[in-house]
Amino acid sequence: MTKSIIFLFFLFLTLSSCSKNTDDEQLTPPTTMYFPPNNSTTWQTQSAASLGWNQNALQPLKDFLVQKNTKSFMILVNGRIVMETYFTGHTSSTTWEWNSAGKTLVAATTGIAQQEEFLNINNPVSSYLGTSWTNMPLEKENLITVKNLLSMTSGIDDSKQLVVKSNLNYVADAGTRWAYGNVFQRLINITSAASNQNFETYFNAKLKDKIGMDGFWNFGVIFSIYHSTTRSMARFGLLALNNGKWNDEQILNESFFKECVSSSQNINPSYGYLWWLNGKTSFMIPSEQTVFQGSLVPNAPQDMYAAMGANDQRIYVIPSKKMVVIRMGNASNIANPNFAVSGFDDALWEKINAVID
């Protein structure tokens, strides 16, 4: 009888301990990185309350997003969805254009081609496209490397958006002038020529399918635009948060990715390889040669790097907070010449900070 009582006593303690541990696990926010499975709608979530966020500020954030023509908005922390909201009939299955945010996809694909030894970004562009791919004197054209296209320092005239030979005229020696332009699209041709594959076929096999993205490229003469769902944009943001790694596979070489999100030159320190960088001492913006002092987005975390596209398509990656923020939609119509594409970024981060700080 005594042994039975002792056994039941220890059984009670064991069950109580297990129950306590389960409760503690539920109260403790997950801190391990999570990657959603490919070919599945499954995606782990985490509550704003478990992160200690100000839930009273969530509705003002949503109201702001509606007012500024947003179609979808997501926040991931450690890969888990904390906030996912759709507006004006947009759904989780609706595709939308990335615009210039898709430049970062081109940078990643170029980096993969380099790690597979199809190309070297320090080589002249003419090594892959042949000579006379521009309308420049040959000695000036030969100065342009693949890296110059990645960093927007080709020295090619940026006043004309149509990327045809007659528009690719000399303005400055490669590496001496930063100017935001569409000539980066020649990276698509370079990767295709170097790998001897159609760019989209190569992109799909080496990047898109590896991380479970959906979407497609719309290739045009003026601009090549990627379209996908919001969750696919978030998948790429999660890859970026993890320095090119997805689960246990290093999709994009970590050292190359870190180059992508570091100052690629001294002229505009707020620009990497087709990524925008926050927290630098100065920045430049498209269509201007003015140098502005201070951070690109003052209200955003200083370590943020971002994919930015026209009409305020955004991927914000914040390593210090293990956070990815996605915004898709129509133009917010917040104009400010002191920001990369618009003043929307600073206004949005004011609302986000009210939630997360």
Work out the oligomeric state of the chains in this entry.
single chain
Total DSSP helices: 11
Q: Report the helical percentage.
A: 25-40%
- Biggest sheet overview: 6 strands, antiparallel
Straight-line N-to-C gap: 58 Å
Strand order of the largest sheet: 2-1-13-12-11-8
Which radius of gyration do the C-alpha atoms yield? 23 Å
What do we call the CATH homologous superfamily?
DD-peptidase/beta-lactamase superfamily
**What percent strand?**
5-15%
| CATH class call | Alpha Beta
CATH fold description: Beta-lactamase
Instruction: Tell me, briefly, the overall form.
Output: globular
Structural class comes to alpha+beta
What is the compact description of this entry?
This protein is of the alpha+beta class and 357 residues long. 32% of the residues lie in helices and 15% in strands.
Question: Would you kindly provide a written description of the structure presented here, covering whatever features stand out?
Answer:
The protein has 357 residues and is α+β, with helices and mostly antiparallel strands. The chain has a single domain, classed as DD-peptidase/beta-lactamase superfamily (Beta-lactamase, 3-Layer(aba) Sandwich), CATH 3.40.710. Helix content is 32%, strand content 15%. Helix 2 packs antiparallel against helix 11. The N and C termini lie far apart (58 Å). The N terminus is likely disordered.
